[in-house]
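From the pipeline queue, job 12 of 40. The input is one protein chain; the requested action is below.

Action: predict structure.
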Amino acid sequence: MNYRYILQRLLFAGLVILGVTFVVFMIVQLIPGDPARVSLGPQATDELVAQRRINMGLDRPVLEQYLSWVTHAVQGDLGRSLISGQSVSELVTQRLPTTLQLAGLAIIIGMLIAFPLGIISAMRPNSLFDVFASILSQLGIAVPDFWMAILLVLLFSSTLDLLPPSGYVPINVDFGEWLSHMILPALTAGLISASIQTRFIRSAMLEVLSQSYIRTARAKGLSEAVVIRRHALRNALITIVTVVGLQVAALLSAVVVIEIVFNLPGLGRLVLESVLDRDYTQLQGAVFVMAFLVTLVNLGVDMLYFVLDPRIEQA
């Protein structure tokens, strides 16, 4: 493997994370409201608010505040919440497992649905199955995630009374309860992810199945299962891995709405709470971690390309 390429990707990933945190930090300053006054309450005097701003470091220039935050962040210190005073690193550590569990379950559900639908649709183009899969895919893409969540709650919670509509139980406390509370939010995100994956898997498989080496493999008398598994699917994996990687990254950011609808104590809900409280430090730390995870996923996808296709130039 070309280590120069890896170093370039790592450097680029670092610049992306730095750029994201800078943009978010500057945008956060435009949010109406004063975190000093929010933390003290509406009855606080102007003198107390001014002193509070000094204690929070909000009286310094914005660029100076950002540089100070970055200096501490690279040392693993994401600062302290401007409202509660808690360590942002601890808050993120507490919330992150829920978000990762939700995203992990969602991508598994999406792949379990998308791979059979996409592959079979490509094997039987323009068939009834292909039309059915295409309609389902279009519906999944068209329906917003919060609306999909409401529909699933109405079906499985209100009508069938099979699953709880909201709430969360840690996995280390009760696995059964954890799973029952996670099924609906994971299914919501997984169905939307499956809709997108199905379309790309079908397109990738159709393109590969039209190649001459597939016809040659069939002419040699290989069974259709062997042709699909050893030749078609393997060569379509580059496109499929790219789509799955993008979906993982998208899920890490899309879980904000789903966590709010299902009242899950994840990183997305922490972002919302930070915005509502005008807690700049907490918001910056949460966004930094999400940007880091998304960049890490994209970096992992780049590394997988060389495993899947050694012909790719490593320059």
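Job complete. DSSP finds twelve helices and no strands in the chain.
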